[in-house]
């Protein structure tokens, strides 16, 4: 009796799997017959003004620097600070 139950469950699962496979193949065949529509590229919202036109403003560019270069630049800014002169 248990063997019959396993056989029936296997047959049901096999039937559902094959039906799903055939349905997917039919759907895929229909989609390939349709013409491909090309979408227009949509610009990023930050590059568009309030009227929908592209902006000509320069973009902020961040470049990577080494840690030593950043420390040297910060030290030079600190040494040139007007607050440093006022405290003396």
Describe the structure.
This protein has 88 residues and is mainly alpha-helical. 58% of the residues lie in helices and 0% in strands. The chain has three helices and no strands. It has helices at residues 2-33, 67-79, 82-87. The radius of gyration is 34 Å and the shape is elongated. 0% of the residues are buried. The mean pLDDT is 87.
Structure at a glance:
The protein is mostly helical and 88 residues long.
What structural keywords apply?
88 residues, mainly alpha, 58% helix
Specify Rg, calculated over alpha carbons: 34 Å
Largest sheet: none
- Uncertain segments are none
Structural class: mainly alpha
Shape: elongated
Average per-residue pLDDT, rounded, comes to 87
Number of strands: 0
Count of alpha and pi helical runs: 3
Please describe the topology of this protein:
Layout: H1 2-33, H2 67-79, H3 82-87
């Amino acid at each position: 009796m248990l063997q019959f139950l396993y056989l029936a469950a296997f047959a049901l699962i096999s039937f559902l799997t094959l039906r799903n496979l055939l349905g997917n193949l039919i759907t895929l065949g229909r989609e390939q017959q349709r013409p491909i529509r090309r979408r227009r590229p949509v610009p990023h919202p930050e590059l568009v003004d309030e009227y929908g036109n592209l902006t000509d403003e320069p973009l902020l560019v961040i470049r990577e620097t080494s840690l030593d270069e950043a420390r040297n630049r910060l030290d030079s800014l600190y040494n040139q600070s007007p607050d440093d002169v006022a405290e003396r």
